[in-house]
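Sample intake sheet
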Amino acid sequence: MSARVIGLFSLGLSSILGCAAEVLGDGTSSSDAFVADTWQALVPASPPEARSSAASAFDRVQRVGVLFGGNEASADTYVWTSAQEWQRLQGTSSSVPSARFGHSLVAIPGITNTARFLLFGGRSTTDEGLNDLWRLDITVSGGVLMGSWTALQSDDDDASNSRPGGRFGHSATWLENAGKMLVYGGQGHGADDCSTSPWDGELLECDTWLLTLNRSGGFGSWKHVQHDENGPGGRARAATIYNPSTGRAYVFGGDSWSTGMDAYYSSLSDLWELDPNACTFWFLGRCWNRSPKWFRIHWSQEPRIVTPSIRGLASFAYSRARAESVLFGGRTIGRYAEERTPMDDTWTLRCGLSTSCTRGQCLSVCNWEELSPVIEPPARSGATILVDDTDRAILFGGHAGDLVYGDSWALIRTPGIDMEIASDVNDAAE
C-alpha cells in the first residue's frame, strides 16, 4: 500500500497557531495568566517534502541545523536557519551520500566559520545496511549557505574490523568533552550481533564504536569498545542524546526482540548512560585504568518515579539553556511487527552526576517529567528533532501507520521553571 502523505494544511492545523492563548477554566486567557508549555505549528516557506526516519542535527556555534534523507525522500539536504526557515542546501561537491533512512547525523561544534556534521550508515533504497561515513561542511558565500559533502575513508578500510558493519536504526551522538563520535547498536549484519530476527535474518547489534577525526577533520580512526555483558544489549531505533554537563551519552528505549521458539518484537523503556572515561580498574584507593563503559539508570520503587512507557523511534534532543532533554512520541511495537501504536506525549529528562561515588565511579541521577502542552502534534514516530539557537525544540516529519508527515512544530517551554533532579533515584550500576 502506498503511503499517504500528510502536510500541515491537509491536517487543518494552520487554524490553531494562536491557540496557545486559549481560554482557561477560570475564564482568563493563558496569555494573561502564564505562558504554558505548548507545541506551535510552524509554516515555513519552503519546507522539506514529507518523510520519516530522516536525521537532523544543530550546530549551536554557527547557528545552523541540517536535515538529510528519510524514507520518503531522495538524497537531499535541508538547513534550518537563524531566520527560522527550512532552506534547501546548495552544494559545491560533486558527490553526496546516497538516499537512505535510519541513518545518524551529528554536529561537531567549534569549527571556525564552518558548521560541520558527520553522517553514518542507514538503510539504502535497496534495503542494504550501510556503513559509509560522510562529513558535511557548511559555509557562507555571498550571503548564501553552501554545503560540501566529503566521503571519509581510512587507510585500512579493507580490514574487516576497521569500522562498524553496515547498519540502520543505530544510536549516535558527538561526545563533545571527549572529541569523539559514539555509534551504538542498530540493525544489520555486523560482527558483534546479539540475536537474530525471526523474520528477515537481520540482526540486532550490541557493539559500541568511537570515531576520532584527525586535526583537519579527516578520517582518524574507529575504536571498537570491548563488549560488556552487562551493557544495554542488542537494540535498534533507540533515542540518544549527549549531555555536556555530565559528559555522558544517554540511550532510552528502542526495539529488541525475545528469543526462543515464540520469538517476537518488543519495545523497551530503560535508560542507559555511557561514561567515556569510566573507572574500570580500582586498586589501593585509586583508579588505574579508564575506558568507555555503559551503566543502567535504576529507579527507586518508593516513591515511584514516572517514566516514559516502552517505545522505539522516539524523538530526543538536548537543550543547553534549560539543561534538559526533550523526548516526543515514538511508537510501541506489539507481539507482531505490524502491531504499532504511535504516541504524542512529551517528556523532559534532567540528569546530573551523583555526589556519592563508589570506587572512583560517579553515576548519573536523572528525573523524567511528563509535560502537558496546550497544543501538541498528532501522534507519530520517526520524526526528526533539534534544539535551535532560540532554545526551541523543532520537530519535523515522521509517520503514523501509512500517514507520512511533512509538518514542522516548535516546543515553547514555560519560562522560569527550574526543576530539581530527584533525590530518590537509586544510581547503582548494574
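Comment: The radius of gyration is 21 Å. Helices lie at 30-33.
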